[in-house]
Amino acid sequence: MLFNKGAEVIFGYRAEEIIGKSLNILLPKQFRAGHTALVREFAQSLTVARYMGERQEIEGVRKSGETFPAEASISRLNLGTQNILTVMLRDITGRKQAQEALAASERKYRGLYKDTPVMLHSIDRQGKLLSVSNQWLKTLGFERDEVLGKKSTDFLTEESREYAQTVVLPEFFKVGYCIDVPFQMVKKDGAVIDVLLSATSEKNEEGEVVRSLAVITDITEGKRIENALRESEQQLREFNEKAVLGIFRLNPAGEILYANPALAKIFGYESVEELLKHKARDLFDNPDDRQAMMANLEETGHADGLEVCMRRKDGKQFWMQGHYRLARDPAGIPMWVEGIIYDITERKHSEKKLLEAYNRLRETQDQLIQTEKTAAIGRLAFGIAHEIRNPLAIILKGVESLKNNLQKKDNLSEGSIQRIKHCVDRINNI
Question: Reduced to 3 states, what is the DSSP secondary structure of residue 395?
């Protein structure tokens, strides 16, 4: 019996420990009887060599009692009346562990592939689906057996299918990858979703693509929001372009970043482009007004209803009223000033005329009041005079009667009558 160094390493026995003993000592107990019968059968057959383990996996037992997987072959050498059997055995523990690790990795990969919460699919060189993730099925509403083996393009809209077949797939099988290709996919219920597809490939030894791994992102909601935002921006742009109010944005240096046509018209310029050649300070009648406005914005961040005298392209002054806001970045640094303004020159002129008319009205009213006062005093005086003159007339008449009937006329009586008449005349002349 021969037991070489390789066998010593594999089984843990020294040659002198094993030579002369039954070969069964190197086999697990459950295989010993069957192994003996197989060896006997092989020795009596005409076969000169055989791979062991064709029917089932074989195992060996080390001196420590540890079992290990193995592969072996047995050959026979006939020396006349004696058959020499030679077994060549290899410990495949490492390979088995690698195979098991690979199988576990594949199971894990398949699990991750199926359960990852994104849409995944793989196709072969014919474009047929080899595998899809659960999220792919959930998003499109299919069962796995309804899609595997079908072409991936079967689940695209007609326009996307043509694009994939004529442009994307030929390029993909040529270079082995694609990034963020926009497609529209059709769900089982007929609904259409927007997606972005990125894919890489597995290649054979000749460098040919044999399998793909595609990641598909559903961007339907994002597209809806993008379209809504685009429509909103378009509506805002149209509003700005058609607005009668001046709308602008300028940076802290006073450079005009944006102006709508109404603003150019307010300042008397032929176009927005002509207006943008000027800085904000060129538009103020008094540069100090701009500095005051900027100081106010720096302090409060906004200014509402501010009235400022401006200057048109032709040099004429006009009044404007506006609402302004100072925008800052996250660090608090001013980025731009934006605002809405409108020409209030006519209103200011109307206000001035109204104030002048009001002042004239006040003057006329004061004059009327004074005239009324004078007339009232006259009426009062006339009334008083009337009330006084009637009794005076009676008094004067009585004095005349007294004078005529006086029996004895003397200087004293005459003097008294004359004084009474004089006082009555004075009263009548008031």
Answer: helix
Q: Give CA–CA dist 171/410, Å, rounded.
A: 155
What is the rounded CA–CA span in Å between residue 298 and residue 333?
10
Dig out the tokens for 168 from the structure. Answer: 């994307």
Asked if 172 and 202 touch (Cβ cutoff 8 Å), the reply is no
- CA–CA separation, 135 vs 38, rounded Å? 53
Report pLDDT for 379: 74
Q: Which residue, among 220, 266, 224, 225, has the nearest Cα to 247 in the 3D structure?
A: 266
- 8-state DSSP, 114: H
| Residue ranges in 167-249 assigned as alpha helix (H) | 169-175, 220-242
8 A C-beta contact, residue 326 and residue 334: yes
How many distinct helices (H) and strands (E) make up the chain? 13, 14
Q: Report the range of poorest mean pLDDT among 44-58, 102-116, 255-269, 377-391.
A: 44-58
pTM, two decimals, is 0.45
pLDDT tens-digit readout, 271-298:
999 999 999 888 999 988 888 888 899 9
Nearest to 184 by CA among 215, 143, 153, 145: 153
Residue count of the chain: 430
Is the confidence at residue 55, as pLDDT, over 60? Answer: no
The mean pLDDT of 60-65, rounded to a whole number, is: 90
**How many angstroms separate the CA atoms of 355 and 348, rounded?**
10
